[in-house]
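Action item from last meeting closed. Structure (583 res):
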């Protein structure tokens, strides 16, 4: 079976956007914080500030015209509304309006007066809208009216000034023409020959034209505009109300929360999606275990429970492994976690063993966790002291794995053999011993499957010591608790050891309470191991089947020069980090 690992670049854009949005929704605390800050800001703006009132007046601007009722007359002739808007907010208008208000007892500086003024121009109109905002509604009305009147007055003065300047220019041109005409008339009166008629006629025509222009200028209607809408005293405060500000605050807060979530996502070293896990690990995703409420019990076996979604997922993973060429060639599987708690990997190993037994395979489950073995205790009454006939007897009498076999019954599914872990003095020597190699070789039998449960691969090197003989490795992890760098190192370590990562199995995330209890239990186990008395002798409280003392036990130095104190175990401590539950 060929696994195709699709990277995020192979996905279509909508799928990537959906995946990124789901990743942002993982940080619900940041989203809730952003929304809460936005709502608080909106409430503060709505309730904390003073109410403001806006009085509005509208002025229609017109140009000077000789006959507004003539055909073709236009009121917008020569008007640039943008320039008129700038004139309305100029210091000239502000000074005149401040002077007018001072006469009425309202003393205000022109700059302060113009600071609360807003002049806008509705599209496609010659109208200027004067909006003045202040905390006093009557004052807002009075100042808006003063500013509009000041604008009209300034514009009227400028129009009349332009007319007077043009008229004075025409008069300046007219005076020499009149003097020249008078001289010609005097010369004509003293002479009998009228040779100046043509020149005098031309002067009369020019004088008449200038007089006509002066008359037309004086006849212009210099009305600068009309106050179409007089400012009135506002009765309601302006601005957004409490509901609108709360809504805007919520939207802005949500945007802030998304921004914070995006920043957190960028700098988050954890695996952000299953596709990223597949890319970092370099192996396919075998399955994702569902979360089942109320499924916890004295036994961790989900196989055998009717109607269990968890059991069906384990069966699907087992079938997928059964048809994987890499697994079918050796029929050996090493199950481990990246680091920390190994409970999920233990549950996966036991349920996969039960699923393969249900398929008619002869399954041997080896617990290679010789530091904190707990699989037999978690299986409870399902594990018994007998073993199937096909399982070969254990070697290495007097130590692990001898006398560690148990028969595990799976209701309605079959049975498998468990070799439970047991604390030993030298873990690396036990894992690389000949008896362990003989046990793992049982996977070469036709129809047999060997599943090895190893400690977290980045906490101890125990899994690495077994990879070359097991070859196929399955990583059991929670994507929210494992880092991308950890997965990349796992891939490199297993590949360098001669093994192959067959895939990853994702288990549901545990709550904070469960994580705290797991850490507390790990510290408690470490504390017990640190205070355990060395060297239990046969007959002094040892359990049945205990092989008793051997070389290197009971505080006496063994062949390797170590003592029998289990707290002084010479293990292959992994250089990747501190093991879970150990200080």
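Sequence:
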């Amino acid at each position: 079976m060929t696994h195709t690992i699709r990277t995020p670049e192979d996905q279509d854009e909508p799928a990537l956007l959906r995946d990124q949005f789901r990743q942002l929704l993982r940080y619900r605390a940041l989203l809730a914080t952003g929304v809460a800050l936005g709502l608080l800001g909106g409430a503060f703006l709505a309730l904390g500030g003073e109410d403001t009132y806006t009085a509005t007046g509208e002025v229609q601007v017109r140009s000077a015209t000789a006959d507004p009722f003539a055909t073709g007359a236009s009121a917008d002739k020569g008007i640039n509304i943008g320039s008129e808007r700038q004139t309305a907010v100029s210091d000239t208008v502000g000074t005149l309006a401040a002077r007018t208000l001072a006469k009425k007892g309202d003393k205000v500086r022109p700059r302060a007066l113009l600071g609360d003024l807003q002049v806008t121009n509705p599209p496609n109109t010659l109208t200027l809208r004067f909006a003045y905002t202040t905390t006093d509604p009557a004052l807002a009305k009075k100042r808006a009216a003063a500013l509009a009147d000041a604008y009209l007055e300034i514009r009227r003065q400028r129009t009349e000034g332009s007319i007077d300047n043009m008229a004075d220019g025409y008069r300046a041109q007219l005076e020499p023409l009149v003097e020249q005409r008078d001289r010609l008339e005097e010369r004509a009166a003293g002479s009998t020959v009228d040779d100046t008629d043509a020149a005098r006629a031309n002067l009369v025509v020019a004088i008449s034209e200038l007089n006509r222009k002066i008359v037309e200028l004086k006849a212009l209607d210099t009305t600068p505009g009309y106050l179409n809408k007089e400012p009135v005293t506002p009765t309601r405060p302006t601005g957004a109300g409490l509901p609108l500000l709360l809504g805007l605050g919520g939207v802005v807060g949500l945007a802030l929360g998304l921004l914070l979530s995006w920043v957190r996502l960028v700098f988050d070293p954890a695996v952000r999606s299953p596709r990223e896990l597949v890319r970092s690990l370099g192996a396919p995703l075998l399955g994702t275990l569902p979360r089942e409420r109320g499924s916890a019990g004295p036994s961790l076996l989900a196989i055998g429970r009717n109607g269990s979604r968890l059991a069906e997922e384990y069966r699907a993973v087992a079938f997928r492994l059964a048809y994987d060429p890499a697994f079918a060639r050796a029929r050996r599987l090493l199950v481990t976690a990246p680091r920390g708690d190994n409970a999920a990997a233990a549950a996966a190993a036991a349920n996969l063993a039960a699923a393969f037994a249900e398929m008619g395979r002869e399954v041997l489950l080896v617990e290679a966790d010789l530091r904190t073995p707990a699989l037999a205790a978690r299986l409870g009454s399902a594990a018994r002291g007998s073993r199937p006939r096909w399982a070969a007897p254990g070697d290495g009498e007097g130590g692990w794995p001898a006398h560690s076999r148990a028969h595990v019954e799976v209701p309605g599914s079959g049975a498998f053999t468990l070799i439970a872990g047991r604390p030993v003095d030298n873990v690396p020597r036990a894992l690389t011993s000949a008896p362990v190699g003989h046990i793992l070789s049982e996977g070469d039998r036709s129809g047999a499957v060997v599943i090895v449960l190893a400690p977290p691969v980045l906490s101890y090197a125990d899994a690495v010591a077994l990879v070359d003989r097991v070859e196929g490795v399955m990583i059991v992890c929670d994507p929210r608790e494992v880092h991308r760098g950890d997965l990349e190192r796992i891939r490199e370590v297993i590949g360098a050891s001669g093994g192959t990562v067959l895939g990853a199995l994702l288990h549901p995330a545990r709550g904070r309470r469960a994580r705290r209890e797991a850490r507390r239990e790990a510290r408690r186990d470490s504390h017990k191991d640190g205070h355990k008395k060395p060297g239990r002798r046969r007959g002094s409280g040892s359990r049945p089947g205990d092989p008793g003392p051997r070389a290197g036990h009971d505080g006496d130095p063994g062949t390797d020069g170590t003592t029998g104190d289990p707290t002084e175990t010479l293990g292959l401590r992994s250089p990747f980090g501190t093991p879970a539950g150990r200080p």
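Note appended to the action item: The chain has 18 helices and 13 strands.
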